[in-house]
Specification:
This protein is mainly beta and 437 residues long. Helix content is 5%, strand content 40%.
């Protein structure tokens, strides 16, 4: 007797599809058994998923046969109604027949097939590396977007676009050893600021600074803006505030792609896009991360717009603070959608914060058990991300009794008659209250 077994090959299938495994075998002997196995752990474990025993069963519902040249041709099928990623792997079909010469001898043969189960990505997101991060108008800094794609099998193809156009980037196989060791160009000294160069060196079409070169002190970062309570709050981004190093035509992009297997059989892919940030041309630029995958009929994408913070909205609770209250000053949002996440820094104009520190980081500033001495104090919140910086101010008014407001009484006791001193304190107290209302 002879026996030949073959399994029809299968194209890759997508999670959720129905799949039929077909085992064809040809013999001139009598059927003994058919066994289907799912092979796992590199072939060390074989799990039975279907068995047909001709000795004890007359059910031929999964068997089809017909006579052809005095041979019997059979087909055994196993149907998986909704495949899962865990169904991925090899399968084997084992067939046994009785030899025609003797009923005691069994002839065995087998065939195998690999079921390749694909899964489309389930999530995609774009975020900024190293956030929140400060803004600097005096030093070039690298900026990195990270695209994270999860749930896919096999690993997807990930690429970036800017304003709808594909980005041509230099592959970066290994992560940078240091922030400044692989920058596209050297950073210039902060004193080379367009607002301080003479007319002969100024950019074409820009007026020169009104004072002679060298007479103005170079500003010292964000601290230069923290003057008095009457200062004019600057706009978030003013082009003339940026130095000459940002005046470039095309940025140089660096791209890196990695993927890591997940326990459920899928792959997490990470793609990074790094370049030297130019706040003038990168502010309000639209970046998108797109994914191509054989299980997707069209690309999957996520997009972000790089935007500097503008117009922070600040709330203070309670609205009418009294001596001894705990006051919370919170940034609730902005006039625009901001990306990446801003860095918030709180300072008290002209003095230190209540706890004695010079500044506080975070969206919320908490002043516990406020004393009367804080009445009228002004607080500045600086919100910044790598694209720009903006300040906003709020004044704290503390309500209390005459006893709680000793700073309103004359500093020279006895210099005024008692009733005159009382009238002065009462008048000043009413002035403070009217000023608030």
């Amino acid at each position: 007797a002879y026996l030949t077994v073959s399994i029809e090959p299968l194209p890759p299938v997508v999670v959720g599809d129905a799949v039929t495994l077909k085992c064809n075998f040809k013999t001139d002997g009598k059927m003994r058994e058919i066994v289907w196995y799912r092979v796992t752990d590199g072939g060390t474990i074989k799990q039975k998923i279907f068995t047909f025993d001709a000795m004890f069963s007359t059910n031929f519902s999964q068997m089809e046969n017909y006579r052809k040249r005095e041979d019997l041709v059979y087909q055994s099928t196993v149907r998986l109604p909704e495949v899962r990623i865990s169904d991925n792997g090899p399968y084997e079909c084992h067939v046994g027949i009785y030899d025609r010469a003797t009923r005691e001898k069994v002839v065995l043969a087998s065939g195998n097939v690999f079921l390749n189960v694909m899964a489309p990505p389930t999530s995609i997101s774009v975020l900024a590396a190293d956030t929140p991060a400060p803004f600097s108008r005096y030093q070039a800094q690298n900026f990195t977007l990270v695209c994270v794609v999860s749930g896919g099998k096999p690993a997807p193809l990930v690429y970036f676009k800017r304003d709808g156009e594909p980005i041509e980037a230099t592959p970066l196989p290994e992560p940078p050893a240091g922030a400044g060791s692989w920058a596209p160009r050297n950073l210039l000294h902060r004193d080379l600021d367009d607002t301080k160069v003479p007319k002969s060196l100024a950019a074409e079409g820009e007026p020169a600074a009104p004072q002679p070169f060298g007479t103005a002190e170079p500003p010292r970062g964000l601290a230069a803006e923290r003057d008095s309570v009457t200062e004019t709050i600057p706009e978030t981004v003013v082009s003339r505030e940026f130095p000459r190093w940002v005046h470039v035509a095309e940025p140089i992009y660096y791209f890196r792609h990695t993927h890591a297997p997940v326990s459920d059989g899928t792959v997490e892919a990470r793609a990074t896009l790094t370049w030297t940030l130019n706040p003038q041309i990168d502010n309000e630029a639209l970046f998108s991360c797109e994914v191509k995958h054989p299980a997707l009929s069209m690309p999957m994408q996520s997009e972000v717009t790089l935007v500097a913070p503008k117009g922070p909205k600040i709330t203070m609770t309670p609205t009418r603070a009294r001596v001894g209250d705990t006051v919370r000053i919170l940034v609730q949002g902005f006039q625009n959608e901001v990306f990446p996440e801003p860095l918030f820094t709180w300072t008290r104009v002209g003095s230190r914060l209540l706890d004695g520190s010079a500044e506080h980081d975070g969206k919320e500033l908490v002043l516990e058990r406020v004393p009367a001495e804080l009445n009228g104090s002004m607080y500045r919140c600086t919100a910044q991300n790598p694209l720009g910086s903006t300040d906003t101010h709020t004044r704290l008014i503390v309500f209390g009794t005459l006893h709680d407001l000793p700073f309103l009484v004359s500093s020279s006791p006895g210099s005024l008659p008692g009733h005159c001193g009382f009238r002065l304190v009462l008048a000043l107290t009413l002035t403070v209250i009217l000023e608030l209302t």
